[in-house]
Every structure is written in C-alpha cells, then in structure tokens.
Write a structure and sequence with these properties.
This protein has 215 residues and is α+β, with helices and mostly antiparallel strands. The protein is built from eight helices and seven strands, in the order H-H-H-E-E-E-E-H-E-E-H-E-H-H-H. The chain folds into two domains: 139 residues, Electron Transport, Fmn-binding Protein, Chain A (Pnp Oxidase, Chain A, Roll); 41 residues, no CATH class.
C-alpha cells in the first residue's frame, strides 16, 4: 500500500537516530541557559503569541496556542513566567494536563522575526488575584494563569520560518478557499445545515462571540 510504513526503516533507539545525522554543532550544544537572560526577556516582551506543549498522565500530547497584545506574558523573575488563560472553549486541555504532568514546553514567536524562543520548565496553575491583576487587558482579568518555572531557555534558528516563508505577504493564502471553522466542525460531526443562509447565520454568530468574549 502506498504510504505504508516499512518496519525495517523505523528507528528504534537514540543511537541509531544519531548515526544518521552529523554531530551537534558546538554552539547549539552550549546555547541552552537555565534562566532568562536580558535577550530572552526582551524577546518575551515583544511576543504576542506562543504555543504551549503539555502531556497528560497517560502520555497523550497536546499543543495549544496563546495570544494577546505583545508582552502579554509577564516575567516575574529570571526563573518564572506568568501566562494568562483567556476565555476559550473551556475544554481545559492544557490546564488538566499540567495538573497531571507539570512539564511544559513553550515556543514564543514575534511577527517578522524568523527565530523563535524556546523555554522548557514546570508549570502550576494559579488564581491569585494579585497575580491575575498583572494580566488585565481592558480591565478584564483571566480566571486563571499558568506560572512556569523556567528550566531551559534557548533561541531557535530561523530555518523553519524561512523555509515556510511564514511572514512573507506573498505566501499568504486565501482563507475563503476552505470552509469556515463552524462549517468544518459541523461537517466533522455530521451536523452541517444544508441551507446556506442558516450556515451564514452560524458563521456570523461565531464572529459575534469573538467580539463579546475576547476581553
């Protein structure tokens, strides 16, 4: 069958994996820091977006986006970050995973920057009103925040972003070439209405919910 994985080519251990690649560059091996330096703090202050990776107790992995005005993640000290948890779909995947397994991985992005900041550490969830007050946007507070104890910090090179041309305006795609988010989800659960006007009303309802719940 085309696309089937052939067992003889599956990598079984790290030694076999590393045998396929050149040795790690000396600078790449040394760049990892145990705490935030001034450059990492400046990067975080510029970033309006991050992805947080977590893992459930059974090993199930999850990655979730987080976004707000630039500098939305607060640096409490050189080993502690505070990430607001804004209104979402209330699945609480990230928070539930943190309660089961506090290890997290973060990737910070800055529009126009091809390099990214990666942070690994251990997280807890807090609803301390004094800390939540630091995260207010337009006088609205998050219900909870994720506090991350930093264990590893390093900047990641630009290759992935340059290959993908993520920030290049000419690489932008027309969102209308795919169905709306609501239509896709309803298709996936076999509940999409046949009436285009009804579908339009549902799409407009999502946009209205964005306007009401963002802040």
């Amino acid at each position: 069958m085309a696309g089937a994985l052939k067992p003889e080519f599956l990598i079984a251990d790290e030694q076999e994996l590393r045998s396929l690649f050149p040795a790690t560059h000396d600078l790449a091996a040394k760049k990892s820091l145990p705490r935030l330096d001034r450059h990492a703090i400046d990067f975080i202050a510029r970033s309006p977006f991050l992805c947080i990776g977590t893992q459930a107790a059974d090993g199930r992995a999850d990655v979730s986006p987080r976004g707000d005005p630039r500098g939305f993640v607060k640096v409490l000290d050189d080993r502690t970050l505070l990430i607001p948890d804004r209104p979402g779909n209330n699945r609480l995947d990230t928070q539930s995973n943190i309660l089961a397994n506090p290890s997290v991985g973060l990737i910070f992005m800055v529009p126009g920057f091809d390099d990214t900041l990666r942070i690994n550490g251990r997280a807890v969830i807090t609803h301390d009103p004094d800390l939540l007050a630091l995260l207010a946007v337009k006088d609205r507070l998050p219900l909870t925040a994720i506090a991350v104890h930093v264990e590893e910090v390093f900047l990641h090179c630009a290759k992935a972003f340059r290959r993908s041309k993520l920030w290049d305006p000419e690489s932008r795609q027309d969102r209308s070439e795919m169905p709306s988010l609501v239509k896709i989800i309803l298709d996936q659960i076999d509940a999409a209405p046949e009436d285009p006007e009804e579908m339009k009303t549902l799409d407009e309802g999502l946009e209205e919910s964005y306007r009401k719940s963002m802040y």
